[in-house]
Design a protein that fits this description.
single chain, alpha+beta, two-stranded antiparallel sheet, globular, DUF2796 domain-containing protein, signal, ZrgA-like
Length: 200
């Protein structure tokens, strides 16, 4: 299952390259394929037998409204509220009760949660070396990463992936770039609040 998820970016690389070419003139100063763009999240979703794996990456701005470390009580409350929402993925991803999905593993990471410290707002774009070597993205942007593995008793009940609750919970998220592998094959789609339901 893990190998399947790791192969996903390579399987959809032509789509990502085409999308990157379309977005080339975007205001974003970094030219990487997984560019940090406010309002845009990324989701990898794999349904393989009874196993469902979801991996969500989002700029912290989309989920909490800022990217700096929380120092005020108000900012800390926003981070805690977002984390609480992310800790309930069955509700957040609107998984149907009939599918009988239970979380087998869940991992949330972000510098805002006190994980993997990164340099605060480093202005030198040429300095891309993370202090712990684990971060792939740049120091001047905070991301929130959520990785979930579910075991679903009745995976046939998962004909769709409904992201409407993600958009309602985190309204600063305008679109989610989804790479999806399911029984009907693989696809790359862009979900929005108006088009939030994807077919597996």
């Amino acid at each position: 299952m893990r190998r399947l998820l790791l192969a996903l970016p390579f399987a959809l690389l032509p789509l990502a390259i085409a999308h990157a070419a379309d977005e080339h003139d975007h205001e974003h100063e970094h030219g990487s394929l997984g560019a940090h763009e406010h309002g845009v999240g990324r989701l990898n979703a794999v349904l393989d037998g009874q196993a469902l794996e979801l991996e969500l990456d989002s700029p912290a701005m989309n989920l909490v409204g800022f990217e700096h470390l929380a120092t005020t009580a108000a900012d800390k409350a926003k981070v805690a509220a977002a984390r609480k929402q992310l800790e309930n993925p069955v509700a957040l991803f609107n998984l149907p009760k009939s599918a009988g999905c239970v979380v087998s593993t869940q991992e949330l990471n972000s510098p805002l949660f006190g994980d993997k410290p990164e340099v605060d707002h480093d202005d030198d774009d040429d300095d891309h070396d993370a202090k712990d070597g684990a971060h792939e993205h740049h120091h001047d942007h905070s991301e929130i990463h959520a990785h979930y593995q579910f075991t679903c008793a009745t995976p046939t009940a998962l004909s769709n992936l409904d992201l409407s609750q993600v958009f309602k919970t985190f309204p600063a998220t305008q679109k989610i770039q989804v790479q999806l592998i399911g029984p009907s094959g693989q696809q790359g789609v862009e979900a929005t609040a108006q088009a939030a339901t994807l077919k597996f």
